[in-house]
Amino acid sequence: MKNAILYYNSIKNKFIFRKIIESNIQRLLKSTLYKICILILPIFLSLVNPAFAETTTSDIILYLNGNIFYSSCPIIVENGTALAPFREIADTFGASTSWDSSSETITSTLNEVTVQFKLGSNVMIKYGKPVEMGSETCYYGNTAMVPVKAIGDAFGYPVTWDECNRVIFLGDVVNINNNPMNNIKITNEFRYNDYIGEYSGVSIFSNGNENFGMELLGINDYWGSSYAETIAKIADCVPYANVYNIIVPTAQEFYASNSKKTNQTAAISDVYEHIIQYNKKNLKPINIVQTLYDHAAEKIYFCTDHHWTQRGAYYAYQKYALENKSIPEIDPLNTFEVQNIYGYYGSLCSFTSGTYGNQLLAQNPDMLQLFSPKSSSEGAAYRDPFMRSYIQSIKVIYPPAKSYSCFIEGDYPLEVFKTNVNNGKKICIIKDSFGDAFATWAVNNYEEVYVIDYRMFNGGTYGDYGSGKNDFKISDFYNFVKFDDLVIISYPVTVSTGSSVQLLTKMVN
User: Fold this and answer.
1) Which domain holds residue 221?
2) Cα–Cα distance between 142 and 146 in angstroms, integer?
3) Is 217 found in the same domain as 100?
4) Which residue has the higher pLDDT, 494 or 57?
5) What is the H or E stretch that residue 349 is in?
6) Residue 352 domain-assigned (yes or no)
7) Domain count for the chain
8) Contact 136, 13 (CB under 8 A)
9) What is the pLDDT of residues 53-96, one digit of tens each?
């Protein structure tokens, strides 16, 4: 989704806004009545709650054709009418939109239908004729806000109001109650708004104090749905295990400027929606987007590396532990022994070698912060799933690597850690490299930890161990190991790349 916003001449906001706070408990109770509380919006989207008697920001969530709409600007309510940022919605629908600053008029065309909105007017022009909207268009900051009902009328989409969940559907109506990505709140507080440029595929931003390299990655709709189907099939292969899917956003979701970032949050939500529709009782997708954002003031991603930090992975593992009811509350982060390694230049420095981008990233090297596990363990790496072809012994934390490979010593086909936790529990982690930092936390709660890099089996060419020729079937591995929990952790490249999804699919019998 494009995240473009109209910027107009400076004008003072003429409205006073106040925050509407809804009890989470009340919303949860209301959601059980979902099927009976969908109400078609009245022509002016009149919301009967008396709290909407004046103009306010709101906690209303907007869906566009079944997908949650994420914006830097909230939905506002003026005298019972909900207004939304027009340009962002028009861009999402694929409309061609222009702005005439002299007349303060928006003109937008979609499917040969042209509409016009004049700021401060309650009339829309469609087919050359005036149409009453019930409320005036207005500014919210520098953003043009238009009544949601009028946007639906303009582009030919029905508008539906779900009172129980406080959701507006513009276009398709979907059941939203089971998607863990619902109600995510991300602001612009931590964004690096100065975009410097792109160097060898790495986009570099600045906040005035430091430079931040990021991958601006999207998730392809086709491969995203194929990925969801594969995850569901993997769950079918291990019916007696608890299966969890975690999609990790890249740093750009929280730190890139709005004008450049892609919307991974909405894409992850779509993938999870597909997963939920397969209705697998042993499969649960986990929302770590909100979890990571809640800690965005901390160092959860590197500035010179495309990975998250071990700290970021801790918060994701903490959320996983909350979702997995069999894991006790994990220890606070500040109770772990920590070692700091300064002067780390990560993968993005390698990607930008020989470019000006490399010089920019070199101005502020990262610090590797290594948290040691509280358990003791013995680790080994193997080429094959039955542990016949031994590679070497490995450690959970390996400081001599002085890189992201400090975490489980990097990528191997199969890594096995046997700990002194002595609870009989076993976890299997199918991962790309983002799973390396995640796995360092699992050794504190499981007696046996199995880490599988899907890229190194079933014909995969990643890595140096010649294991691609080895087959890996998740059902065979389950029968061999009998793990309790399976976590499939991926970042957007895995979810959206055909070759990656195909390698995951080959794990299914």
Assistant:
1) 194-505
2) 13
3) no
4) 494
5) helix 347-351
6) yes
7) 2
8) no
9) 345 666 788 989 888 787 778 899 888 889 999 999 999 899 99
